[in-house]
Amino acid sequence: MAKQVPDTFRVAIICGKLGDVDGVSLEVDKWIDVLLAQGHEIYTFAGFYPKPLSSIPEERQFVVSDLRFGSEDQLEYENWFFPHLRSGPFRLSDDRKERLLEKLEDQGNRLANELFGMIQRYGIDVIIAQNTNAMPMALLAGMAVYKLSTERRVATIFHHHDFWWERSRFSHNHIEELLGMIMPPAEPGLEHVVLSSYAEHILRSFKRVHPRVIPNCEDFEHPPKKDDYNGHFRAELGFSDDDILIIQPTRIVRRKRIEDSVELVGRFLLRYPELASRVRFVISLYQGDEPDQDYIGQIRSMCKDRKIDLRLISDRVAAQRGNDEQGRMMFTNRDVLVNADLVTYLPVWEGFGNALLEAVAAKVPIVTTTYLVYKTDIKIAGFDNIEIRDIYDEENRLIIPDSAVEEMHRLLQDGERRARMVEHNFEVGAREFGLASLRRLLRETFDDYGDEIRASRKRIEKSRREYPV
């Protein structure tokens, strides 16, 4: 009997932002590459693209401005609904709350109609909603996708990277009933994907849905290596070959606990002053989508007090190689990492840990906290990292043992120990979190959800004939 060829589908990925260096954008890029290789046709609907996606034609990359973060309407909703984000001492009356919710409902309907028109026009079979219904950074997007998936009954795979109740700025809010309904919805016929076994447990407990786990993955088949392009990184950024580059390969947001990395580097310089003149503490990514004007100033001040040579290089880091408007070479985070001597990664919370896997693929030693998902889903794979337990003192400072500082020094001085560690970690990462795992898990997802996608295709075809938007 001939082997049955699996169905392929037209897939629309919906997200507030794509083509950037944040974790969601990077993971979406991997999903797109795998889905294309499996024969699916990919379209993207995003609020904006800092850089066009390289893997699909630009004519299939659509800008839908109401999906974006930080729009005028989104800022208004944030100001009223989320007290931690307010710019003034406002009081939300019942009347104002009702008017705002009515406005959100109306705008959500209009955006859902716009998206459904595009779904009809391009014959989309299934949408993949990337964090739109997990984190309220684009409430309009969440409302519109909710309506598409539950009222229009478009087959939807929700890819949840983290959840609103995990972030203090969103967990305290005036719209918990709404968020409970749409972020994420729990209606039958929807597919949910989470990054970790912990997130799976929480979603089962909170929403009584049964998500599947697809962890962050990394391309260990084509790992970052030194080449003729990134070989210019040190010279281009003003570093010497003798400099010791300790890289913080993340955005500058509080949950990354960069102050703990600063304290760690400061402790290292005090313990080993003979190396102090060579150490550069480099933060590779930008301040991010989590507004906090004081945090970067705090990091600068801490580095100054501890005589740490801080370098912020986000203006030279992009999703793709190339040149900026000034003609300067732009490097990816992978290019940065292959030039690193050590990586600090000490978050208090992560949905998974994209930057950690990137560092493993780049064969760089890592100092990491044992944050929750690291303990439940990453450590058990068998990695050999410098681990600092996620224990904090009465002033909320990470308790850093002397042994972590000593092991940093050993790895910087002992090439054999370093080589054994990074090669071991690379083998573990490739086995547990490589693209082969992602291929298998995505194929299983589409196989299992295929009947619903085919039913959705028929509904959309019928609507196109009878009720065009």
Automatic annotation (TrEMBL):
Q: Which Pfam families match?
A: Glycos_transf_1
- Known InterPro entries for this protein? Glyco_trans_1 (IPR001296)
Residue ranges of domain Glycosyl transferase family in the record: 234-423
- Single annotated GO MF: glycosyltransferase activity
The organism's superkingdom is given as Bacteria
Gene3D superfamilies attached to this UniProt entry:
Glycogen Phosphorylase B (3.40.50.2000)
UniProt cross-references to PANTHER family, sorted A to Z: GLYCOSYLTRANSFERASE, MANNOSYLGLUCOSYLGLYCERATE SYNTHASE
Q: What is this protein called?
A: Glycosyl transferase group 1
Q: Sorted alphabetically, which keywords does the UniProt record give?
A: Transferase
What are the leading ranks of the lineage?
Answer: Bacteria, Pseudomonadati, Spirochaetota, Spirochaetia, Spirochaetales
